[in-house]
Amino acid sequence: MPGLFLQPIRRRDFFKTSFLGGAALVLHGCRTSPGASSWTGNEIHLALLSDTHVAGDREHGKDPRGFDPWENLNRVVPDLIARSPRGVILNGDAASREGLPADYQELKALLEPLSRVAPVYIGFGNHDDRKNFEEVFASAAGLEQEC
Ligand SMILES: [Zn+2]
Fold first, then answer.
1. Residue 116 binned pLDDT confidence (cut-offs 50, 70, 90)
2. What is the DSSP string of 82-122?
3. Which of 33, 41, 53, 95 is most buried, taking the most CB atoms under 10 A from its CB?
């Protein structure tokens, strides 16, 4: 069931899992005979976001070169919703520079429409702060579930 489901995972764990998943796909591909379709009807469509670097203060979050992380995420969310992913993975550096509570408030507001159509999983990067994240996302379903 779609909903706000944020499961913080460490970036290292994500890469380890992704690598194993990639290895499994490669292995599966090696077993497929040439010309045969490997489609099983069980495909899953996921959206991958990374380094959103959303800042609580939009002006503070803008890069002098014109890079606007808040606007970028705001612009991509409707596109993702239109594509109906089964899940969304935000692979770290969700917040701007130090992971302030205000950064996560903005991030939560930006992701809220997306979380209504697919679970959103957030991994931590070196710009994120677990304590501040958990304060803001305290009511997210994933924070209270065992892996
Ligand atoms: Zn980054």
1. very high
2. HT--SEEEEES--BSTT--HHHHHHHHHHHHHHHTTS-EEE
3. 95
Question: Within a 10 A sphere around the Cβ of 146, how many other Cβ atoms?
Answer: 3
Q: Give the phi and the psi of residue 75 in degrees, each rounded to 5.
A: -75, -35
C-alpha 19 to ligand 1 mean position (Å): 20
Measured in angstroms, how far is the CA atom of residue 38 from the centroid of ligand 1?
Answer: 35
Tell me, in angstroms, the distance from the centre of ligand 1 to residue 5's CA.
22
From ligand 1's centre to the CA of 124, what distance in Å?
10
**Using one digit for the tens of pLDDT, what is the confidence trace for 10-59?**
666 666 655 554 443 444 433 444 445 556 677 889 999 999 999 998 87
CB 13 within 8 A of CB 127: no
What is the distance in A from the centroid of ligand 1 to the CA of 107? Answer: 15
Sign, CA torsion 120/125/127/130: positive
